[in-house]
């Protein structure tokens, strides 16, 4: 019986460790899977998600100007985890379809999944109409963690 228990334990350990991984399914340890839906054609911009204190959170920079086709990388620098949610009634006409395709995984339309400290998520503005795109971090909205992207 002892040998049987040892063999069963060894089998569980082998199963838990897994086998061969599919290279296409793996992701970089510092970057969550990109949420880009359209082909990007422009520059890359980084916005950091920062905890300044227990009651102060911010995006840095707060306001960013980009061109249609650019990609914005939201990097979680401090404060455990953050997300990015675009405000439906504060984006240009026609932008909802672009953002709904480009931003997935969150608790609502046009919202990213929570991004742990040290990781990032990217959003493509390929095909995005010009105008101002307001966004916020859902759990830190009461602490005014908000920002905007102007697409030219």
If you had to describe this structure to a student in words, what would you say it looks like?
The chain has helices at residues 2-17, 95-102, and strands spanning 44-53, 56-60, 63-66, 71-76, 81-82, 85-86, 115-116, 120-124, 131-136, 146-151. It is an alpha+beta fold. It has one domain: Cupredoxins -  blue copper proteins (Immunoglobulin-like, Sandwich). The chain has a four-stranded mixed β-sheet, with no helix packed on it. The longest helix is centred in the N-terminal third of the chain and has 16 residues, at 2-17.
CATH architecture: Sandwich
Report the span from N to C terminus: 72 Å
Number of strands: 10
The CATH superfamily is: Cupredoxins -  blue copper proteins
Helix fraction bin = 10-25%
Q: Tell me the CATH topology.
A: Immunoglobulin-like
Structural class: alpha+beta
Mean pLDDT: 80
Number of domains: 1
What is the overall number of helices?
2
Flag low-confidence runs: 1-38
Strand content: 25-35%
Taken from the alpha-carbon principal axes, the silhouette is globular
List SSEs in N-to-C order.
HEEEEEEHEEEE
Output the strand order for the largest sheet: 2-1-4-8
Q: Kindly provide the name of the CATH class.
A: Mainly Beta
List its salient traits:
single chain; about 150 residues; alpha+beta; 2 helices; about 15% helix; about 30% strand; disordered N terminus
Layout: helices, strands, pairs:
Layout: H1 2-17, E1 44-53, E2 56-60, E3 63-66, E4 71-76, E5 81-82, E6 85-86, H2 95-102, E7 115-116, E8 120-124, E9 131-136, E10 146-151
Parallel strand pairs: 1-4, 3-10
Antiparallel strand pairs: 1-2, 4-8, 5-7, 6-9, 9-10
């Amino acid at each position: 019986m002892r040998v049987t228990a040892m063999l069963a334990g060894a089998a569980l350990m082998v199963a838990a460790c897994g086998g061969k991984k599919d290279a296409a399914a793996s992701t970089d340890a510092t970057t969550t899977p990109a949420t880009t839906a359209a082909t990007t054609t422009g520059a890359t911009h980084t916005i950091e998600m920062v905890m300044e204190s227990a009651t102060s959170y911010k995006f840095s920079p707060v306001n960013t100007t980009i061109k249609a086709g650019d990609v914005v990388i939201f990097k979680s620098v401090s404060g455990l985890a953050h997300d990015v949610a675009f405000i439906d009634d504060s984006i240009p006409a026609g932008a909802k379809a672009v953002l709904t395709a480009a931003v997935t995984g969150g608790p609502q339309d046009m919202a990213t999944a929570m991004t742990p400290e040290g990781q990032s998520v990217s959003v493509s503005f390929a095909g995005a109409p010009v105008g101002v795109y307001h966004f916020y971090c859902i759990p830190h909205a009461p602490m005014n963690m908000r920002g905007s992207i102007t697409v030219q």
